[in-house]
Amino acid sequence: MPVEPKLIKPPLTDDVIRSLKAGDEVLITGTIYTARDMAHKRLCEAIAGGQKPPFPIEGALIYYCGPTPAAPGKPIGAAGPTTSSRMDHFTPALLAAGLKATLGKGYRNQSVIDSLKKNCAVHLSTIGGAGALLAKHITSAEIIAYEDLGTEAIRCLEVADFPAVVAYDSSGRSVYSSSPYKIVTPA
User: Fold this and answer.
1) CATH number belonging to domain 6-168
2) Is the dihedral of CA 106, 112, 116, 117 positive or negative?
């Protein structure tokens, strides 16, 4: 019998994060933020310089996404995930600042996995190549920072039942292995 997806709503708490296990399917409803490489660089520079980020980072979820322009009457264009490892250099600093979840596609490096454990956070994955379908779960989109970065600007998205899988949980377990059904537990 299929297991129902877990419903999560940012801002996320430690209790919610600890309840999520590698392999869990989730549906996200609420406010999330987009950011890619250059936005991550600016966010980290701002935090290191003692400035507040352009959105409340405590409990937040960042979606690694650079959406296409919206068609008339739509809030956003195709909004598929970006390769997560491109943000690995920046992720530990953002998790230390209070970020609770990241969302993208693909593997994370060991420093990110260690930081997820240290900061009680998770990494979620969603389906690459399905940006048009994922956009149907986005009810509004607004650029809130770094507009000069174009598609890499930070956007505030309102999402409803946005589908994802817990790829790395706060204990360091992962869905990635040589077998698609095996949960990998760190040594």
Assistant:
1) 3.20.130.10
2) positive
Domain spans, the chain:
6-168
Residue 31, CB half-sphere, CA atoms under 13 Å: how many?
12
pLDDT at 185: 57
DSSP assignment string, 75-110? S-S--PBPBGGGGTTTHHHHHHTT--EEEEBS---H
d(CA 72, CA 180): 39
Which helix (H) or strand (E) segment is 178 a member of?
A: none
* Distance in angstroms (rounded) separating the CA atoms of residues 164 and 38: 24
Q: For residue 49, give both structure tokens.
A: 């310089």
Q: Say whether pLDDT at 59 is over 60.
A: yes
Cis peptide leading into 11, omega within 30 of 0? Answer: yes
Tokens found for residue 120: 């009680």
pTM of the model: 0.92
CB 107 within 8 A of CB 91: no
- What pLDDT, on the 0 to 100 scale, is given for residue 181? 47
**Contact indicator for 96, 119 with CB cutoff of 8 Å:** yes
- Alpha-helical segments (H) within 108-147: 110-118, 131-135
Cα separation, 171 vs 22, whole angstroms = 9
